[in-house]
Amino acid sequence: MADPTRRPPLGEIVRLFLRLGVTAFGGPAAHLGLMQHEAVERRGWLSRDRFLDLVGACNLLPGPSSTQVAMALGYTRAGWRGLLVAGACFIVPASAATLALAWAYVRYSSLPQAQGLLYGAKPVMVAIIVQAVWNLGRMAYRRWTLAAAGLVCFAAALAGMPPIAILLVCGGLALVAAWPQGRSTPAFGLAWIPAGLGGATAGAAALSSLFFVFLKLGVVVFGSGYVLLAFLRTDLVDRLHWVTGPQLLDAVTAGQLTPGPVFSTATFLGYLVHGWSGAAVATTAIFLPSFLMAGAVGALAGHIRKSVRGAAFLDGVNAAAVALMASVAILLGRATLVDGWTWALGLVSAILLVRYRVNSTWLICAGAAAGILLHSMA
Question: Is residue 222 a part of any domain in this protein?
């Protein structure tokens, strides 16, 4: 019988997150759906409620939430080494692909087209998100009060309320409701790095200035890639004049075209500003805070759950997090399921996932191949 205290080999972490880094299109909600399917359902690394705690806690952090969940999963599985390996394997493929697009963009003044790939891959990602919402929702909404809170959060998300506000308000209300119970004290604490880092000069973009600008972004940007776009425009276009508005939009498009975290947009912009070294510096800087914060989540989430009030707060945050995933599924579905072919791909994918538990990676690859074929026939 295997020793339960022995650390698992890092190879399984490498294989999983390198594969997800290559195939995880669709944004953070889709990434979380894939991780839930692979780490919880297929491999049994942790329970659904433990996974939900990691998702809820990481959603409260600045930076790329799905990347931080990947890191926290690595930490849960194999400590700090697992965190570093999971984070690197999830980030590097996206950054490498984005860097290739940046090179092509500078050389040819345009981005290679990938509409066909996304046309087929995104319906599969919608099905994966829906499956994750169903599985996680059964755990998150185990009481009617949490289910009601989830519905309110879902409506608030569709109405445009900022995600971080939804998470904090729902968690705070759950905490207040649980306040008279128990004798333990709240066990929360986030170490915030000052947001004033990165006073870059308006002159030549030295690598040190580039590093601090993107380090600041990694610390202060909450929410989706669209929030990142607003921060990037303020710093890189309006204040520093390192890139133009059209170049920024092309960089964000490149981040959307590649799998993995949308924050790989930093790689593209770093290359535009300072070549190969700029790409490496910008990528390192924007993801560096996530490694530290995700490690804290992995280490503290279990302790918070042991507190009555801490558990109540996490329950509220988790209810909101699943509602946010559901709202993303609706919005992504509206933009993705635009004709009979995309509806067919989405429905078939959902059936294969739920009924036959087909490996999600193969479904994404098959969907992408079908999309390229259909797009070439159009």
Answer: yes
Separation of alpha carbons 151 and 155, rounded Å: 6
What digits encode the pLDDT tens for the residues 239-257?
888 988 878 867 876 776 7
Task: Please say whether the beta carbons of 83 and 288 come within 8 A.
Answer: no
pLDDT tens-digit map of 261-303: 878 889 999 999 989 999 999 999 999 999 988 888 888 877 7
Is 147 inside any structural domain? no
Contact of 237 with 243, CB cutoff 8 Å:
yes
- Please count the structural domains in the chain: 1
Select from 336, 315, 325 the least CA-distant residue to 140.
315
- Tell me whether residue 275 is in a domain: yes
Identify whether 241 is part of a domain: yes
Give the residue among 132, 140, 137, 144 at the shortest CA–CA distance from 171.
140
Give CA 270 to chain center in angstroms.
21
How many helices (H) does the chain have, and how many strands (E)? Answer: 14, 0
| Domain, as residue range, for 264 | 207-287
